[in-house]
Specification:
Elements: H1 10-20, H2 39-45, H3 49-58
């Protein structure tokens, strides 16, 4: 499954919610529903994310992978 974070204008929220409710829970799950949260707040809410970032910062640059060698 993919995870997407959206900001939905209040004027269309009801219509968007109606659309989402036409999918099964196996197709779409609403994971978090809040009013205007920043990316930073969202990322910090994911368990283990801060620790993972701190570990990555402490890692030597020699252990890194260049952009050309990333597997997308």
């Amino acid at each position: 499954m993919q995870t997407v974070t959206l900001q939905i204008n209040d004027a269309v929220y009801e219509k968007f919610s109606w659309l989402l409710n036409h999918f099964s829970r196996q197709e779409i799950q609403i994971i978090d529903q809040s009013e205007d949260t920043t990316d930073d707040v969202y990322l910090r809410s994911i368990e283990g994310m801060e620790e993972s970032l701190l570990e990555a910062r402490a890692e030597s640059k020699e252990n890194g992978v260049t952009l050309e060698n990333l597997e997308w």
